[in-house]
Amino acid sequence: MRAFRLTVVIAMLVAQPVFAQRGAPAPRSPEILPDGRVTFRIAAPNATDVRLTGEFLKAPETLHKDAKGVWSATVGPVSPEIYFYQFAVDGVAMARTKLDVSGPSPRFYDVRPVAHGAVEQRWYDSKTIQGVRRAFVYTPPNYARSSERYPVLYLFHGAGGDESGWSENGRANVILDNLIADGKLKPLVVVMPYGYAYPPTSPLADGPDAMKRQRDGFSRDLIDDLIPFVQANYRVHADREHRAIAGLSLGGGQALGIGLSHTDVFSRVAGFSAALGAVTSPQAGGLDFKSLIADSKKMNDRLKLLWVGCGTEDTLFNSNKEFAQLLESSGIKHTFRVSDGAHTWQVWRRYLNEVAPLLFQ
Amino acid sequence: MRAFRLTVVIAMLVAQPVFAQRGAPAPRSPEILPDGRVTFRIAAPNATDVRLTGEFLKAPETLHKDAKGVWSATVGPVSPEIYFYQFAVDGVAMARTKLDVSGPSPRFYDVRPVAHGAVEQRWYDSKTIQGVRRAFVYTPPNYARSSERYPVLYLFHGAGGDESGWSENGRANVILDNLIADGKLKPLVVVMPYGYAYPPTSPLADGPDAMKRQRDGFSRDLIDDLIPFVQANYRVHADREHRAIAGLSLGGGQALGIGLSHTDVFSRVAGFSAALGAVTSPQAGGLDFKSLIADSKKMNDRLKLLWVGCGTEDTLFNSNKEFAQLLESSGIKHTFRVSDGAHTWQVWRRYLNEVAPLLFQ
To answer: Is residue B294 assigned to a domain?
Structure first.
């Protein structure tokens, strides 16, 4: 890790005093050991308590201080995956940080030497929101050289996230590139919008009607502004047969809520660890799924895929299970996928890898 | 800020226990007051010392604790700008965070309702690096609908950054969209690569030759791999007359070093707060600018623009001034732009806004 120190030296050379490191260089952390265990370290000579939480831990780990004031703990072995972890120094949570433990062979979300699609950041004018909004758009390999039209998936992030989440944390483009290269997926376009009609700093995100305004605003922005923008700017099929909607967590609730309310617009609907409460709560306008799906014949005729997945360690598991039971008792064809895992990107990456090939067969 | 708390509540609903907040919600921070001052707060009941550093402060500010364990300080007034700031809790630095103080009218890097270009993430195979690398590519408004060819700017980030820096922190695409909309800039394509041949975790980033290997690897990847990829995948002019190179800090050193070494490839060269040491040091192969520019007639014939800018509060100011003096004493036509400011994105956004229209007139 002399290399890292070298980079730090370069960074220090060009950093302003206000951000310059003082004293000793940061200790090496995380250090992945040959046996798969991982050592975490943080310099905090004046702290009295340092803990580590992480998606690879069942409970917070207490770190121990050495004579130089560096706290450390060794955990694991940790399986090959990308995880989030976080130190708490005297009870103050530090930034969530990624730990990437690579394995002996490429994972399904590792960049491989195959043909690559592109991820575009696009800005569109939204009449609904009365402002400019950003969406990320995945176009498959050779899109620019082709004259083909493609089906489209609208794919939503979770609470606290944004339109960059599915590419930065979900590796959506890498997963899709790999599936296409392996002949498991026909090329498609994926549109990843910003899931809040009004960002937290907006006055419109405040007040008793905020949840309903967010829900209705996002839905109208999607249907009245974003879909027309996509159809005007990308070679996509513009009919419901070629349009899917999916999302994770808050976005899963949005996908199920909007998808089942608009079967004239979408024919494929999927919720990953869906937060149904944010959609069904009275504050959000109290979307009533039961009456929404009452006409089971119409729903079954229109929906080519209805997929609901949740990990058994997820605190939302029971509400997803109840939702699947409602679908079952209402005679709605669907897949309820019960998997390992909690409310994490590990699960959502796997779900995308599993669901994408089912969308447009 | 009830809205923000509401968002936090939604986030908590869907968060796993491992990342759930405990106890009281986070205090409102930063709070921009009507008089332009800003209050920063952080809950740290067990800490004994909390400080704030920020690009709007001349020296670290000490926070004070209230009875509930919330530390706070009010600073400013702070001019409309985007700044980074950072808490240090008992000497441990927290994440660098943005403070965006908007003004009464749109700033040159604010998104306006004009025609928008796109920012694409592209992956290319690099023979030099023997792997897949990512670059960000700005295409101007209406690029997809046009059949025109465009000039290209290769634009580099600084030490510790990556290929997302110029769009995420530099707002390059927004600045260029606004300049184009205002008739101040002819449309161009901007390519923003990853500035390290080998990331810090690579064994090739280690050892005594690391700086030279990084420098040579980046230069070869740019010329042998990235430029051919761009020319094969974008409608750009493929001659030196339509090719510019620029960068900030480490990337400024790279732009000046590569640009002046390859006047057969680039006709426009600019360094923003350039870190010349990383290019000229013996470890980096000791690029000797003096002999590089010895043939002043050739350099002046070939270079249509040579622009060097640095803020007077920047620790790199003197080395940039010496470089400008070397250019002057060698008879090389150039612009040395002395500005206010330190080693910050405030300066680099302004430089891009100023330099982009000069590139291809």
So the answer is: yes
Residue type (1 letter), B150: Y
Residue A20's alpha-carbon distances to A9, A16, B98, in angstroms, are 10, 6, 17
- Chain A residues whose beta carbon lies within 8 Å of the beta carbon of residue B125: 113
Q: Out of B37, B71, B101, pick the residue that ends a domain.
A: B101
Alpha helices in chain B (DSSP H): 2-14, 165-168, 172-181, 210-220, 227-233, 250-261, 277-280, 289-292, 296-302, 317-329, 345-359
pLDDT in tens, A97-131: 999 999 889 999 999 999 999 999 999 999 999 99
Rounded distance between C-alpha atoms, residue A125 and residue A138, angstroms: 19
* A95 plus A229 within the same structural domain: no
Q: Is B96 on the interface with A (CB under 8 A)?
A: yes
Provide mean pLDDT across the span B123-134.
94
B42 strand-pairing partners = B71
CA distance A311 to A343: 7
Neighbouring C-beta atoms of residue B86, cutoff 10 Å: 17
pLDDT of A24 reads 61
- Give per-residue burial for B229-262: e unless 16+ CB within 10 Å, then b: bbeeebebbeebebbbbbbbbbbbbbbbbbbbbb
Q: Would you state the pLDDT for residue B25?
A: 74
> Cα(A297)–Cα(B353) distance, rounded to whole angstroms?
59
DSSP B267: S
Q: Which helix (H) or strand (E) holds A346?
A: helix A345-359
Q: Do residues A73 and A40 touch, judged by C-beta distance below 8 A?
A: yes
Q: Give the separation between CA B44 and CA B281, rounded to whole angstroms.
A: 44
Choose among B190, B177, B300: nearest CA to B255.
B190
Best interface-test mutation with B: which of A123, A236, A249 has the largest number of B CBs within 10 A? A123
- For residue A34, the domain's CATH number is 2.60.40.10
Provide the pLDDT for residue A23.
52
Contact A201 B92 (CB under 8 A): no
**Element containing residue A243 per DSSP (H, E):** strand A243-248
Q: How far is the C-alpha of B239 from the C-alpha of B152, rounded, in Å?
A: 10
Contact B16 A344 (CB under 8 A): yes
Is A344 an interface residue toward B (CB < 8 Å)? yes
Establish if A316 touches chain B: CB-CB under 8 angstroms: yes
Q: Is residue B18 part of a domain?
A: yes
Give me the number of domains chain B comprises.
2
Q: Could you report the per-residue pLDDT of B298-313, keeping only the tens digit for each?
A: 999 999 999 999 999 9
Under an 8 A CB cutoff, do B343 and A132 touch?
A: no
CB contact under 8 A, A13 and B94: no
Consecutive H or E run containing B132: strand B131-139
Q: Residue A198: which domain range?
A: 118-359
Q: Is the peptide bond before A208 cis (omega within 30 degrees of 0)?
A: no
Inform me whether the C-beta atom of residue B13 falls under 8 Å from chain A C-beta atoms.
yes
B287 and B212 within one domain: yes
Which residues from A are below 8 Å from B165, CB to CB? none
Contact A14 B343 (CB under 8 A): yes
